[in-house]
From TrEMBL:
InterPro entries: DNase_TatD-rel_CS, Metal_Hydrolase, TatD-like, TatD-type_Hydrolase
UniProt entry tagged with the keyword Metal-binding: yes
Species this chain originates from: Polyrhizophydium stewartii
Similarity comment: Belongs to the metallo-dependent hydrolases superfamily. TatD-type hydrolase family.
Lineage: Eukaryota, Fungi, Fungi incertae sedis, Chytridiomycota, Chytridiomycota incertae sedis
Protein name (database record): TatD DNase family protein
Metal-binding in keyword set: yes
Length: 344
């Protein structure tokens, strides 16, 4: 028979559970887990111990049930896939447009060997007990940063990613920055080679978003960089609910006080979801394992993205979270039992 103390403890536990906020299902489709910051290195200088496992744990604490690690280069993606397996998350595989000079310089074998290595990375992953790779990318075009890689070389190597998607049957994880008609034209020309895709961290105009969603049947990823300005906010308001995904692009693209979207974080007067989860931050100079690092974005800030985007669109957080989660399952996890339920 339970003692009075046991009964009181059980009652207290039940009351605490009832008081705790219900976690909404979240999926962060873009986290640069292999970035040096998560290893404690900032601008080439070590500031603290690696805390990438703690970063993933914090994300799970706020309801992030799916997380996709992305990167920039072959070395990055090898690290991202290894981290994804170790931490029980997922990854994409590709070559970021700002790193597209790397394939030609790859030794031995140049670009052909580089893309063969990317393909091998996917196929080796599929032989693992728990495959991690769910997409081809991050790939695309970035005309804001042609000082890293000229536009003609970006286009040449972007085209090769469509072949990777065709060979693997994987969806694509796309990057598009200030490319005029070039990005859309290339995607349209190669649309028959891939199943579907998300254009992540979207910052383009309304007409481009409509072409991507309505004509090409693609999805749009939204993070802090997607809602910096009032013009971007108007675009995000109009993304079809069945085509939107959410992300952090951590350690980048946090929502800052200078952004037009910042006002939407507090307009409901609700408690900060990170504070409710007991998540605090410190400057990197005062690093303590288990705490966020100030000015370094993390996937545990997904509730902030959700709150801002839901307020911008005039939707409840629950409605947006469920829709974005279903979209993510449908694209990246089509064989997951939850994806089948999400499609109904």
């Amino acid at each position: 028979m339970a003692t009075a103390a046991t009964a009181a403890a059980a009652a207290a536990s039940t009351a605490a559970s009832a008081a705790a906020p219900r976690l909404l299902p979240l999926a962060d489709i873009a986290v640069n887990l292999a970035d040096p910051m998560f290893a404690g290195v900032y601008r080439g200088k070590r500031a603290h111990d690696a805390d990438v496992a703690a970063v993933v744990e914090r994300a799970r604490r706020v309801g992030v049930a799916r997380l996709v690690a992305t990167g920039t280069s072959l070395a990055d993606y090898r690290a991202a896939v290894a981290l994804a397996r170790d931490l029980g998350v997922h990854a994409s595989v590709g070559c970021h447009p700002t790193h597209c000079a790397e394939p030609d310089a790859h030794a031995p074998g140049g670009a052909d060997a580089y893309f063969a290595d990317l393909l091998r990375l996917v196929r080796d992953d599929r032989a693992a007990a728990r495959p991690a790779v769910v997409a081809i990318g991050e790939c695309g075009l970035d005309y804001d940063r042609t000082h890293f890689c000229p536009a003609d070389l970006q286009r040449r190597h972007f085209a090769r990613h469509f072949d990777l998607a065709h060979q693997t049957g994987l969806p694509m994880f796309l990057h598009d920055r200030n490319t005029g008609p070039d990005f859309v034209d290339m995607v349209r020309a190669h649309r028959h080679l891939f199943s579907t895709a998300v254009v992540h961290s979207f910052t383009g105009p309304l007409d481009e978003m409509r072409v991507l969603t309505d004509e090409l049947g693609l999805y749009i990823g939204v993070n802090g960089c997607s809602i910096k300005t009032d013009e971007q906010i108007e675009v995000v308001r109009r993304i079809p609910l069945d085509r939107i995904m959410l992300e952090t692009d951590a350690p980048w693209c946090d929502i800052r006080p200078t952004h037009a979207s910042f006002r939407f974080l507090s307009q409901h007067g609700l408690p900060d979801p990170l504070a409710a989860a007991g998540i605090e931050s410190r400057k990197k100079e005062k690093f303590a394992m288990g705490h966020m690092v100030k000015s370094r974005n993390e996937p545990c800030t997904m509730p902030h993205v959700l709150r801002a985007v839901a307020a911008i669109r005039g939707e409840s957080e629950e409605q947006l979270a469920l829709a974005a989660f279903r979209n993510t399952l449908r694209v990246f996890f089509p064989d997951d039992p939850e994806a089948a339920a999400a499609s109904q």
